[in-house]
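User: Structure with adenosine-5'-diphosphate, tokens only please.
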Amino acid sequence: MTNVTELFGSMVFNDRKMQERLPRTTYKALKKTIKNGEPLDISVANAVANAMKEWAVEMGCTHYTHWFQPMTGITAEKHDSFIYPAEDGQIIMEFSGKELIKGEPDASSFPSGGIRATFEARGYTTWDPTSPAFIRDKTLYIPTAFCSYTGEVLDKKTPLLRSMERLSNVATELLHLLGKNDVTRVTTTVGPEQEYFLIDKKMYDQRPDLIFTGRTLFGAPAPKGQELEDHYFGSIKTRVAAFMNELDEELWKLGVMAKTKHNEVAPSQHELAPIFATSNIATDHNELTMEVMKKTAEKHGLVCLLHEKPFAGVNGSGKHNNWSISTNTGENLLDPGKNPENNIQFQLFLAAIVKAVHEYQDLLRLTVASAGNDHRLGANEAPPAIISMYLGDDLGALVDSIINGTDYRSNGKSEMLTGVDVLPDFKKDSSDRNRTSPFAFTGNKFEFRALGSSLNIACPNYMLNTMVADELAQFYDELKNADDLEAAEKAIIKRTLTEHKNIIFNGDNYSDEWVKEAERRGLCNYRSLPEAMAHYVDKKNVDLFVRNGIVTEAEIHARYEIELETYSKQLRIEALTMIDMAEKNITPAVISFVSKLSDAAIAKKQLSASYSVYAETKLIEELSEDLESFVKKTAELKEAANNASLYKDDQLKLALYYRNTVFALMGELRALGDAMETKTSAAYWPYPSYAEILFGV
Ligand code: ADP
Ligand code: MG
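Assistant:
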């Protein structure tokens, strides 16, 4: 039996270990940095580094690494050993405060969006003391931020930390104005629910598309998909359960509060949800979770797919970013309380969020855009590409009453009568869920549901924090000089909700009517990454980030370039992989099968002219026609991929070309290939089928 309380955090240099191992004054100084964001002294860093090293060496570590989140979409690490030369050719194990605080990875090979010429290769990583160090594979991991020699931000963590700080400052100021003088810090919290697929490694190894692109580029539908709805919350198979148990244990050791696990809608699809943490720690933990998922799967002969759409025709994977704001005094600022109609503070925060989501809906859309997520948003399974907010019946009624100046009546929490004596009755939630909304209020937090499964959650969260901070700052500026504070607050709330109510939509987001209605309301509907990303550099968005001190204009342009470039590269890899699969395996396989059919027909006729060769000739005829189209389409795709170089000087044009031309041809080629798969003998088809992959575990 696993002792979970002992296991939990055993690989983390957490608060308890710091208390045990650090001198009292050092511990206090470090806590001040962590809790209040105060700068750190080098003597403190030296003491912390030494304590960390001693603990790590006791735990069998030989190396340490600065762990960071460059713009690649995955984390990066470079390992250094603790060895240090001593007398007589001996060594000692050393780790200084300087090494803890600052690392110097070569920055030239990380994307910078042209911000830094490659000859200026120097980059720095800086210790983030607010996220605890941990041990993996005999190495001490130190969470760090990453910037260039000239100080440009090259990672995802720095803007997140800045946005948290900014939101904390403006929210605290506002709360002081409202009389909450004991509040000294406000923190954003996040609980990311993570979806993933788990397939057999033997199948994976036979699919170059999965290996190179993370998704299947060919594959006819299996006879059974998710239509029986028998997988969601279904009983977990033994092999998957073994994986999940080990995953939980590995995550617990790393201090990740893995809480909920279940089967998801699609066959082979599952979900893991942790208990929420600060945005920063939640981000680090989510990155760790994805990495540990992949490594643990391997140990079980499985592969964990984090791509947003590994299989056409079955549900893809997303990530739900549950987000809230709370004070250091323990108050959740998004909790409406018993009487939201009298809770001016809650109404102010709600109004700020409504205004932020309305004004910066394009940012929320583009922050979840990726080549993978383009397959989900707008298709009939994920929230649409239109950003709107769901408030539920209660809050919806409250907002209406504020706008119209009428009385508010809550539904209240009614008693749920189970009708069976042995089952306890319980209080129902005051409103139902809306599973179709991209941004839904869920009692005391918002659930941003449009994220793709592989996304680093730092980006959506720094966007969210920044836009809300900006609105709160505007409220504060207006309120600080008000003669009658309460009247001014009420006026702001009423005005804001009235002006921005168009972003609120409580109906079915998947319906066609909503697309039309949203258009009437003037909401954005960007169906793909290039369309959405084009707005990253709109003046209002650049101004937002610059005004709040999150990233500079040059850094935004760099991020924009990187996103577009990555998108084009991913689509290019997909196109080339498809061409390769088509030319080297699919076409030859169909030719072999057709030739086998012809041999069979000829042999039959030689035996007796009266034998029917109807089946053989019909198949030969059909497959020959299909194959001709397939080969021609492959050539078209090849030419289109070659022509991409014409657009190489403009990342936006290039991305649009890949989307509108290359991607469209890939869809056509796939349809032809899949049609041939359904007619070709399985013995000849070069790749495992959807049925084998999706039902193989
Ligand atoms: P569902 O699947 O119904 O959306 P879950 O219970 O699986 O809900 O997930 C809800 C997530 O929201 C969990 O990760 C939980 O920790 C998180 N959460 C709860 N309260 C907060 C909060 N105040 N701030 C951020 N996240 C929260
Ligand atoms: Mg959810």
